[in-house]
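sanity check this record:

:::
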Amino acid sequence: MKPKTLTDIKRHAEADYPREACGLIIIRRGREKYLPCKNLAPDTEHFIISAQDYAVAEEMGEIVAVVHSHPDAPASPSEADKVSCEASGVLWHIIRVDGTEGIPTAGELITIEPCGYQVPLVGRQFFHGVLDCYSLIRDWYQQTRSIELKQFSRADEWWNDGKSDLYTQGFPQAGFVSIESNAEMQVGDVILMQIRSTNGVPNHAAIYIGDGLILHHLHGHLSSRDVYGGYWQEVTRNVIRYVG
């Protein structure tokens, strides 16, 4: 990384504190350039780079790295950072910013690169859109059956926006169909549940892994295996099966 690039990253990270700063490094006409991007995330704990910013960067040159800051936290990559780095196919630079005496100061910078990292199915942290219940189902199908399910963009808490029904609409596009209510469940069947959804639609999904157990990733919790009974059966709205 060129000294000017690092300086530009630090200035951006300090200017956006306490929000996470994010940006892209491109190579244009043989020169390295840092492009600050707008963080579209609704909170201060993660970042979302807009598709428009990516498009502008791609028009200007070749994207070679993603950059973001960790306000008041180590620059160590989270599970979500590692997964997203793999998906991007480029380097990720993470820089720490501390609000010392009210003056944000950028410090340590850590770089990670795609290396084939796979987050464990059980015990993974929750990060909506990156590590959530649908991500877990996609990973299970990829790891156990070598099936790549379709990916969908999804805003956090879409189930409370008064209109969205992403699971009912999305799973058929990913190759799933409903099974009869009295049909015996098979390993790989997906159970759609409604948990505190003001839209009145399913907003959580679990995968049946046999022996009365489900694998799922509940919002704000670590992914886990649980017995399918009691509360989970009460909130079940549909069971669907992959047919391709």
